[in-house]
Amino acid sequence: MTDEQKLNPAGPCILVIFGASGDLTKRLLIPSLYHLKRAGLLPEAFAIAGVARTNETSEAFREALHASLQQIAEEPLDGSAWDWLASRIRYLPGDLDNPQTYERLSALLKEIDGTSGTAGNYLFYFAIPAAAFENVAKRLGAAGLVNETPGHWRRIVIEKPFGTDLPSARELNRVLWQHFQEDQIFRIDHYLGKETVQNIMVLRFANGLLEPIWNRNHIDHVQITVAESIGVEKRGSFYDATGALRDMVPNHLFQLLTLVAMEPPACFEANATRNEKGKVLESIRSMTPESVKSDVVRAQYSTGNVNGQAFRAYWQEPHVSPVTSTETYVALRLMIENWRWAGVPFYLRTGKALAVKKSEVIVRFKHAPFTLFQDTPVEQLTPNDLALMIQPDEGANLRFNAKVPGPVMRIGAVEMKFNYGQYFKTQASTGYETLLYDCMIADASLFQRADNIESAWRIIQPVLDDWSTPGRDKLPVYAAGSEGPAEADKLLQRDGRTWRRLAPKHEPETS
Ligand SMILES: NC(=O)c1ccc[n+]([C@@H]2O[C@H](COP(=O)([O-])OP(=O)(O)OC[C@H]3O[C@@H](n4cnc5c(N)ncnc54)[C@H](OP(=O)(O)O)[C@@H]3O)[C@@H](O)[C@H]2O)c1
Question: Which of 218, 221, 252, 506 is flagged as catalytic?
């Protein structure tokens, strides 16, 4: 969108939040709706109906949301925006396992339609535990709440995780299709709500500079990192049943990978983009039990220190089995077998309790073909890296070589830096604003299509299968606060490469 293009508010609708008393609603959904109101993107005829088991009144529910919004907000709240939103919030206590909850919900929605002009358009947001997705979809269908009639739309938003492996993802899709058309289903991956993730497409497809070099002829390899400095905190039982691979790779890391690797779509229509992403996933070389052993590394954090804070080992964390085999770190080497990327490895890594919190994509270019500088073999020159920084720093850096001033010919690596916050005046945002607005206007570009989800699980299923084989060796460990396990370094060293450091030293690299 250019500055001149202004977005219109979404059309009339009710947002029904299942799981309204939960963390996601408080921390992300309500703040996003408040931001959308301030941006003028919510319709006058708008309402929120929150559903959860906690027995409370609409009044108490609004007060609790107000208190948490005040806590989260970086600046004093805009009272009139909050009052506008609060006056549209209703709460319905009820168990989603009980069919009567849906009858009462249906009556509430009709009442709101009658008083607020919301026109029978409903967006059902599943902010509930993943184990409840299928059941709630079935009950919504049975209650007749999702049948669209001319001029009245019904949509659902499904949170992550979408399945825990390929069979469960397929089964969830099958259940959803019994009650919904594919275009009614919005499978969310909140990574796609981040400006910097969306910027990968703009960077690639709005700059003639990059297009000619974005391929195997010029790119040596790509590194995709999503590093967290926190441990499992209070989520031990969830995490121990999930692990780093399931939690991060088929969703967030593959989103980054597909955006970096896909061909330009024919247009910016949802299916055109999703088709291109799907082709990338389908081109990833299938893993075998042998390649899982050679190309995938998993590990657990042991005791250590992150930013001055002492960490216990993962297996000592509350609600984690002392003999756990769940990985808190995973690194993979993937090959995309198509014309653009043949021979270019994509190295992915993600983990908890690492030195820093950092999400970034490093595109490493090949060395210059030969060097004019006698004492500096070309392999010793620091390679050119394009770093796409997702969080916490947001922007893009280009690293290249320059002459270090002085009478002696010395070459040093320098950086050209673009920082989002410094360049653009950005508004406070959670990353969910665009996604919520897009659901209301039926733009599915930033949502996952069923086949894309299944392709992602298909890629990692051999890893899950291999890891579930009994009799495995003990997992490697890495100290909390480190850059990850030595085994992950070896994965790249074997190919004559190294990871870009998570916490780089600040002196310039010279050769
Ligand atoms: N929180 C995040 O940052 C985040 C980020 C990405 C994805 N997600 C996903 O979003 C979903 C919600 O996460 P969350 O962190 O908000 O979880 P949460 O804090 O545990 O909240 C779960 C909500 O679901 C409700 N609920 C559970 N079973 C119910 C039932 N049978 N009937 C009615 N309500 C029921 C709970 O209501 P009561 O407590 O009143 O019983 C509560 O409101 C999960 O799928 C999660 O994976 C969360």
Answer: 252
3-state class (DSSP) for residue 5? coil
Give the Cα-Cα-Cα angle 30, 33, 34 (nearest 5 degrees). Answer: 85
Number of the ligand 1 atom closest to the C-alpha atom of 126: 11
Exposed, middle or buried by CB within 10 Å (0-12, 13-18, 19+), for 250?
Answer: buried
The residue ranges of DSSP E strands in 1-153, in sequence order, are 13-18, 46-52, 89-93, 122-126
Contact assessment for residue 158 and residue 186, using Cβ atoms and an 8 Å cutoff = yes
Residue 484 CA to residue 493 CA, distance in Å, equals: 14
DSSP secondary structure of 197-229: HHHHHHHHHS-TTTGGGSSTTTEEEEEEEEE-S
Rounded CA gap, 501 and 387, in Å? 12
The answer, yes or no, to whether any atom of ligand 1 lies below 6 A from the CB of 53, is yes
| Nearest by Cα to 300 from 239, 249, 258, 251 | 239
Task: Name residue, tokens 């001055």.
Answer: 308
Query: Which residues 6+ apart lie within 8 Å of 208 measured at CB?
Result: none
Please state, in angstroms and as integers, the Cα–Cα distance from residue 316 to each residue in 248, 311, 350, following that order: 22, 10, 21
Cβ–ligand 1 contact at 163 (below 6 Å): no
pLDDT in tens, the chain (511 residues): 444 468 899 999 999 999 999 999 999 999 999 999 999 999 999 999 999 999 999 999 999 999 999 999 988 999 999 999 999 999 999 999 999 999 999 999 999 999 999 999 999 999 999 999 999 999 999 999 999 999 999 999 999 999 999 999 999 999 999 999 999 999 999 999 988 899 999 999 999 999 999 999 999 999 999 999 999 999 999 999 999 999 999 999 999 999 999 999 998 889 999 999 999 999 999 999 999 999 999 999 999 999 999 999 999 999 999 999 999 999 999 999 999 999 999 999 999 999 999 999 999 999 988 777 766 676 778 899 999 999 998 999 999 999 899 998 888 899 999 999 899 977 778 989 999 999 999 999 999 999 999 999 999 999 999 999 866 568 999 999 999 999 999 999 999 999 999 987 655 555 5
Which domains occur in the chain, in start order?
A: 13-159 (3.40.50.720), 192-493 (3.30.360.10)
Is any atom of ligand 1 closer than 6 Å to the C-beta of 296? no
Atom of ligand 1 nearest to the CA of 94: 33
Q: To test ligand 1's pocket by mutation, which of 18, 128, 232 has the most ligand atoms within 8 angstroms of CB?
A: 128
Q: What is the whole-number distance in angstroms between the Cα of residue 97 and the centre of ligand 1?
A: 14
Pocket test for ligand 1, best of 24, 124, 134 (most atoms within 8 A of CB): 24
35 is catalytic: no
The ligand 1 atom at the shortest distance from the C-alpha of residue 130 is: 45
